[in-house]
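Predict the structure of Fap protein with C39 domain.
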Amino acid sequence: MRALFRVTGACMLLAAACSANGQSTMTIDIDGQPMLRKPVKSMLEMRYQNMMRQQLDFSCGAAAVGTLLRYGYGYDLAEPRIVEDMLRISDADTVVKNGFSMLDMRNYVETLGLRGRGFRVDYSALRQLKIPVITLLDVNGYLHFVVVRKAIDGRVFVADPALGNRIIKEEDFAANWNGLVFAIIGRPFDPNSPLLDIAAPALRDRTNAALAGGMVPAALDFGLIRMDYF
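Done. Here is the predicted structure for Fap protein with C39 domain.
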């Protein structure tokens, strides 16, 4: 004999709640009795998964740096703290008006014992990247920092502090990019970082072997030509 469950709109309740670790759960009630609890993620959570979202209109640079620090180097830092610390070593009025610069980023990561380097490269260098880098895009006249995770097969995978994880066509990216990248070096980038995972078969074979053992190689080993921008 088969058990028969009557499920009606009044009896079936979908409720999202935050647990102690901040993860959402979905509870399905049948005839008033909780029958199933399952961790779920909203579309918004998935869009910003494994990256830092900017909270202020001028803080894309801070959020981009925070994405690399948190998911590549293991620093447990929140964006408000990063913004506060970066403002201490920057011209606050200029930052509020124009946003943080790559020089501001360099000065900040050096307070953490890391090194920041800016490079002018051509697009082919993005295909050789072994670590994610920060780039500056011109989005309809608005200069905006994003993290380039990888460029492969005519697509650029970016963690965008304003729009979340997205994929940009190579030609669209190149048309809005000024050829500058900012890399954080000074300690090994986590080879298991989710920033490196774009489900591309060849990706993990080309991750951070250059940083194995804690060595800091020349910029060329990161897939960047050896040309300091600052």
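The chain has a mean pLDDT of 77.
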